[in-house]
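Hey, quick one: can you model this chain's 3D structure?
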Amino acid sequence: MARLSARLNEIKESGQKALVAYLVAGDPNPEITVPLMHQMVDAGVDVFELGMPFSDPEAEGPIIQLAHERALTHKISLTSCLEMVREFRKDNSITPVVLMGYLNPIESMGYNEFAEAAAVAGVDGTIIVNFPPEEAGEFGDLLAEREIETVYLLSPTTTDVRARKICGASRGFVYYVSLKGTTGAETLDLADVAEKMSRFRAFSDLPILVGFGIKDGASAKAIAELSDGAVVGSAIVKIMGDNGDNPQLLEERVQALIRELRTALDG
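Sure thing. Here's the predicted structure for all 267 residues.
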């Protein structure tokens, strides 16, 4: 079984909730990313979404857009991201890493070349925001051959017909984007999340993880009661942006947030 599915199945069977953390590779500088990932695992992260910096991240809000810009000032490329995963794998062969971002850099590299390089580096999955499953057949097959799993997104406006297709195409987990709009939104409608979880669970036995609007222990706990786990991005990335000139404080604050989230999910 692929590492991502194996880890999430283990968490689900144990009755726990998964904590997925998003950060942008190379933000606020390339030296921080891999050491911080190890620290975040120690604090309680189960899975990473590693953002591939891109010049036009249209699905992101201002906080994550700025993170992409910060990373790009250091010339962080898709190749750089893969090198960071390879470095992370030297000391961690357990924690899944999912590359998240946009299709454009992958198309520039080439599907086959990307699939092979990602497998060698130790990548476990992809979330490609602007690559719907109807168009990703060849790409998905190349990844599946290498046990790299493709994760697709559900949203509040996804119809049942569309949700069935997305759930059928997803591997590892299904990612429910709980709010309309871009990343970094503030208000969770828990009743709406509960209704969507009830609907979407009929279409898949995979874990369904919820992202957008989760920023602290209280929101993580609320989401954990409705889903199989939480995806936290903007709250982490904001700490990166606010403390880029003080690496020690950055690390301390990220670890504190992860511990808060972990405690809430376990509680």
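One thing worth noting: The first helix runs from residue 3 to 13.
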